[in-house]
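The methods section describes the discrete structure representation at length, but only in general terms. What matters is that the chain and its backbone geometry are given together, residue for residue. For illustration, here is how one protein appears when written out as sequence plus structure tokens:
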Amino acid sequence: MTGAASPEFQDQLTDFLPKMRGWAMALTRNRAAAEDLVQEVAMKALSACDSYVPGTNFPAWVHRIMVNQFIPDVRRQREHNDLDQVPEAGIPAAQEDSTDLRELNVAFQRLPKDQREALRLIAVEELSYEEVSHTIGCAVGTLKSRVHRARLQLRSEMSGESRAAA
């Protein structure tokens, strides 16, 4: 790493993690592989933070890192798979994707209204914390706390932790 990532860069990367997870799921079609890819991309982005030019298209920069990480991984896997493994390594059935989306929607709807609205505006609408803070009339810190709690709850429900605790 040529230099330490600034707190602003770290915040931008952290705020961007949900979008990265979506891209990773679209690429890998596997939750564990997607999480691994997101971690690898986040580490590469942090180590290459000096090459990012502030004010340019951060999503495009991160997406390029992700694609550049994903393609060689797929090629390596392909080289190591033999014909007996091909059916097992296939793409999950559309029903599994549909079930995951339904589960995510149910978990999202269970969130308190303020957390649901904050997460939707930040993660889906991709508005800045400042824009959302101004729109809904709360402090940026409060907004970040709501988004953080919403993400934790969704992660917990999607991993099955909340069902196990219930």
